[in-house]
Write a structure and sequence with these properties.
about 425 residues, about 20% strand, five-stranded mixed β-sheet, single chain, 18 strands, alpha/beta, six-stranded mixed β-sheet, elongated
């Protein structure tokens, strides 16, 4: 089964919490704080692997998590760092933020390894908070939260040249004729259910050729199989537009070219602007008399498209007629174009998205007492659990926490005045502006 698209959730590791402990040994009853730091959470890293050709590994499992960092221990023991999560993908995989569709990373060109999500930083143990005036701090820093994001993986094949055209016009036969690829070939629609790659060896430089499954009208809107494979020609520099010059299925080859180009334009405007060469195939099935005169399909194609700058070559993928001239033209066009692989620029940075993300909390004015303000939230409740508010240092630590997370600003926005009461669960204190 060929899988070129997958939707997964990735999560980095949470940082380990710092530890609260005190050195207690014989003859050293008050040895001071010795709580160790928490370990760093694991990163989520994507790497390209030449052994991977599809995204099948991500079709049946939808959540991937790096390892959390271990909490710190007593005697200044540092918690172990969480193991990174390494996700292997084929070269050419584009990683997008699932909701917006914006590109996070393109695993192409020189980009073989990229950290997508960073693990949370480990929290400091209480040994870091000792001061001359506060020699026994009973609080430690929590580990930084994990980061989680849903991403869309799309495999966009890396090929120099793409074969496009309606189903059953001979693309797979042409590919097998000029490369070492062995695609399935049969006389029915959609024989090719997955893109096939082959290498064309030529004097003066070869190129990679991709057989893109047949498109149909409405492909850009999701009709048929076309939409699923249009993404594979986004990197191609030149397209060979194969048409059935013999009209074996009753279609007009000139009309076919316009219809397929319209689908390209509807999907992405720049695809329709890529260099094209028309391969008028199946000439071997036409009598010699049909190749002469004003009604010749080859002549009609040349008169219609060569004035538009699109070369037309009459070929037979079965007999090999005209193929050498076609490939030389394609090779010449490739030499005129930039040689580097098309790489999609990043549009979304998860690190920026998560940086400074506020902790969940609510700040409300009490309906019962006009001069009382209520602050609640899961992380605030947790902070109260390991902070000694009876000490000056502990209370200052908690105030900094409230300031850094925007709680004090919200209280001011609600109109709190000096002397008003702030209630946080079982804690109450009077508000005074610093």
């Amino acid at each position: 089964m060929f899988a070129d698209r997958a939707r997964i959730v990735i999560r980095s590791g949470k940082g380990g919490d710092g530890h609260v402990s005190f050195r207690r040994e014989k003859y050293i009853p008050d040895g001071g704080p010795d709580g160790g730091d928490g370990g760093k959470g694991g990163d989520v890293i994507f790497v390209t692997d030449d052994g991977e050709t599809t995204l099948l590994n991500y079709r049946h499992r939808h959540k991937f998590s790096a390892e959390d960092g271990e909490p710190g221990g007593k005697r200044r023991c540092h918690g172990s760092n969480g193991n990174d999560l390494i996700l292997k993908v084929p070269a050419g995989t584009v990683i997008k933020e699932a909701v917006s569709g914006k590109v996070i990373a393109d695993m192409s060109g020189d980009n073989h390894r990229q950290v997508i999500l960073k693990g949370g930083r480990g929290g400091y143990g209480n040994m870091h908070f000792a001061t001359p005036t506060m020699q026994a701090p009973k609080y430690a820093q929590p580990g930084q939260d994990a980061q989680e994001v849903e991403v869309l993986l799309e495999l966009k094949m890396i090929a120099d040249v793409g074969l496009i055209g309606f189903p059953n016009v001979g693309k797979s036969t042409l590919l097998s004729r000029v490369t070492n690829a062995n695609p399935k070939i049969a006389n029915y629609h959609f024989t090719t259910l997955s893109p096939n790659l082959g290498v064309v060896d030529m004097d003066g430089g070869g190129f990679v050729l991709a057989d893109i499954p047949g498109l149909i009208e409405g492909a850009s809107e999701g009709a048929g199989l076309g939409y699923e494979f249009l993404r594979h020609i986004e990197r191609t520099k030149v397209m060979i537009h194969v048409v059935d010059a013999a009209s074996t299925e009753g279609r007009d080859p000139v009309d076919d070219v316009y219809k397929i180009n319209q689908e390209l334009k509807a999907y992405r405007q720049d695809l329709a602007d890529r260099r094209q060469v028309i391969a008028a195939n199946k000439l071997d099935t036409l009598p010699d008399s049909s190749l002469k005169g004003d009604e010749s399909p080859l002549k009609r194609l040349k008169e219609e498209f060569e004035p538009q700058g699109i070369p037309v070559f009459g070929i037979s993928a079965v007999s090999g007629q005209g193929i050498t001239e076609l490939l030389r033209c394609v090779q010449s066009l490739l030499h005129e174009l930039p040689q580097e692989t098309t790489v999609f620029e990043a549009e979304y940075d998860p690190q920026v998205h998560f940086t400074g993300k506020s902790l969940p909390f609510t700040v409300e004015k009490s309906s019962e007492k006009p001069d009382t303000y209520v602050v609640e939230g899961p992380r605030i409740e947790k902070m109260l659990g390991y902070t000694n508010l009876e000490s000056e240092k502990g209370f200052q630590f908690f105030q900094n926490f409230m300031r850094e997370n925007g709680i004090l600003k919200q209280l001011e926005d609600l109109g709190i005045q000096e002397g008003d009461t702030v209630r946080i669960y079982n804690l109450q204190f009077d508000y005074y502006k610093e």
